[in-house]
Amino acid sequence: MKELDLIKSSNDKKDYKYVKLSNGIAVLLIHDPAVAEALAAEDGKQAMDVSEDGEQQSGSGSGSGSDDDEDMSGSGSEEGSSGSEEDEGEESDEEEAGGKKGKKQKGQMAGSKKAAAAMAVGVGSFSDPAEMQGLSHYLEHMLFMGSDKFPDENEYDAYLSKHGGSSNAFTELEFTNYHFEVAPAHLEGALDRFAQFFVAPLFKAGALEREVQAVDSEFSGVLQSDHSRLAQLMCHTSKAGHIYNKFSWGNLASLWSQPRAAGIDVRQRIIDYYRAQYGPARMSLVLLGGQPLDQLESWVRQLFDAVPQGVAGPPPAFSDAGMPFEGRVLYVAPAVKEHHEVTVTFQLPCLRPLYASKPDHYISHLVGHEGPGSLLAALKARGWAIELCAGVDDDGYSANTAAYLFTVSIVLTEAGLAAGPGCGLAPVALLFQYLRLLTETGPQAWVWQEIAAIAGMKFRFAEEEDSCDLVTRLASNMGWVAPQHLLAAEYLHEEWQPEKDDMLAGRE
What we know:
alpha+beta, 18 helices
């Protein structure tokens, strides 16, 4: 395949290669010089062990996958397949944001750059059947429970822990993401075990109830989260029959008790769902290591060409679902935490095709501005608010193929809560006055140019991203971003489209 010229920062020292496998899986390969240095250091340490002791004590260091019985200093301890409560808490911000949920295991290998991989599969909770809501999340858990090649359900986690690694997975509304990190010399062995999730998983009957309990535990853990409660309220108050009107998390009742009472074979339903919804046409893989790109590509082709074609076509899109809410409704909900907050939600069409111009960023930049003359300054001058946030969040409920939700959240003072008719409506009235001012003024080129310049500087001088965070983010974006834009998509402002800014501000 012809080499793809990815747009990357001038300060980015990594090398990239984009390929398509014979079965259709999209793959981004990354050679990281820092990981290559860590790999060389591991090889050097192992060579020193051999020369000092007269025999090899730490394995070959080749990452060939034949190091099952090796010992490695500083390796993490093995954890249960469901992860601990403390581990789950590490992603609480993502989970609270509305839809990300998953399992995590953590190893230990401080101070060394790791290799990593992530697979995003283009199906998520929007595709859950009505009779088993949360099935995508449940399936995510079950893929960790062994494969034909590695039948021990703890094999994947134990291998990663032994070699300083960790793993995680989360289910979104339109995709599911699986990822891991590991000591660079053991990348191939980890990748082999990881690939089997998508080649021949076992769905062990003995793990069904234990894993549904893990899903239920995750759900119970966020019941006192204000963000999660509001996200579920949003689902509950969406239009009847709309794809938002689901319980995407899943719990013991929706995934076990109710289906079994209805005569559903839970294990068979999971297998049927996997076969119908998981396929190469929906898969995007990102692999980062210290080995040369050709070596990484060879491993990927050897291991992932074996993913069966199946029946799943391209990822489903929900552009015909329509807007999720009736609109012009006020809901009042008690908060768990001691604070007052009013959130105004504006329903927009899907903006994914406009990622290179980002008209929503123009509006959020102005509404969320905090300087003199801003909306927040006016609210503070009245003693009504202490904080304001505006824009489209990056969670599945806020940005998907059905709709984008632009929210303005205002943290209120007691005075702001009580002003006017109460319930924070006086600050909301000021918000609409400000939006009216924006529409009357019209789009301003200098504002867009300022936003584009700031984004360009951020892209050029972006801090080095954690290996696992990087592959996870890139794999999640591969389903809807042009390959050449994968690294720059979040910063791109290629063309000013004032008519789009005008439309989103409500002028049309």
